Amino acid sequence: MREKLLSIIATSYSSNRLNDVFELLDSINSQTYLNIEVIFVVDRSKTLYDRVKAYTEERKICNVKVLFNNSKVGLSVARNLGIKEARGDIVAFVDDDVVLFPNWALEVVRTYQDHSIVGVTGPAIPLWETRRPDWFPREFEWLVGGTAWYEHATSADVRNAWGMNMSFRRKPLVDSEGFQSNFGLRNVGRSGWTDPPSEDVDLSFRVKSRTGGRIVYNPMARVNHKVSTDKLNLAFLLKRALSVGYQRRMIKKLYEKSQKDHVLALEHKLLKSQILAKFFPSLLTEFPKRPKTALHKALIALVIVMLVGVGYCLTI
């Protein structure tokens, strides 16, 4: 049987991410599955474009295209440019600050042996710049691009693929017209504190709706996702919490009528089953041993939950 070509699309916009990009490219070059093409799209920075292009030549990384985005900048636009260039049967997207496990590509491609599957996602394991802070709860790793909140030992159907580690069959991806670069501007208000909203969730809904296919979580399709120290300051976490509330309200408004299941079932399960039922009670056990850390965790968790709610309620 013919080996499927896997197209990996990554984007970046700043030469400050150069070392991260090099580590990503090295991890792609070390994959055990070899039928891969890489499309790297650079926004804004000609310096980054030149350095990445030179690095791929120096390291003799085969089957790589480095593109410079001269049109409207932004993650969705850059990824759509990559889709136009992709020739693979499967098109994958990874962030510029992830490091792929050596068998990542093999696990992604294997998952598509089931023809009912149109999308695949997998774990993003935090790679801390220094060390994991004692005060930062695992249940809130979604604030910094981790997936510890969703731990599943075997493959499972999921609502959507996660943007730092996701792939789709090429045809339904192209038929669904890729990412919507104006997604955050449709039918909802925008505010200065919001991030670009959940384009990965939006695209997942559209691909599934068009095909009737499944998106599957493969626990072995793993990446490490870097967490820099600047993501652990209070300002970043508060802004991110507000943004997540905004994003989820928008997803609900856009898709609640077209989905058979509750659109925010994942978020409700996280809140009820993990944060309220397990995390907060666990602090009572931790408090006698480490009172300062337990109080710090409790305060952070309460503020984050409150701000997600505020972001959700303030969305017009």
Characterize the structure shown.
The chain has 316 residues and is of the alpha/beta class. It has one domain: Spore Coat Polysaccharide Biosynthesis Protein SpsA, Chain A, CATH 3.90.550. It is 41% helix and 17% strand. The protein contains 9 helices and 11 strands. It has helices at 18-29, 46-58, 75-85, 104-111, 170-175, 199-211, 234-255, 265-286, 291-314, and strands at residues 6-12, 36-43, 64-69, 90-94, 98-100, 117-121, 124-128, 156-157, 165-169, 214-217, 223-227. An 8-stranded mixed beta sheet has the order 3-2-1-4-9-6-10-8, with helices on both faces. A 3-stranded mixed beta sheet has the order 5-11-7. Helix 1 packs parallel to helix 2 (46-58). The radius of gyration is 20 Å and the shape is globular. 39% of the residues are buried. Residues 184-194 have low confidence and may be disordered.
Number of discrete domains? 1
Instruction: Quote the distance from N terminus to C terminus.
Output: 52 Å
Radius of gyration, in Å, reads 20 Å
The SSE order reads EHEHEHEEHEEEEHHEEHHH
Q: Count of helical segments?
A: 9
Please state the average pLDDT score.
Answer: 90
Low-confidence stretches: 184-194
Query: How many strands?
Result: 11
CATH fold topology:
Spore Coat Polysaccharide Biosynthesis Protein SpsA, Chain A
Known CATH architecture: Alpha-Beta Complex
**Strand order, sheet with most strands:** 3-2-1-4-9-6-10-8
| Form type | globular
Range of helix content = 40-55%
CATH domain class name: Alpha Beta
Sheet bearing the most strands, described? 8 strands, mixed
Percent strand: 15-25%
CATH superfamily: Spore Coat Polysaccharide Biosynthesis Protein SpsA, Chain A
Protein structure class? alpha/beta
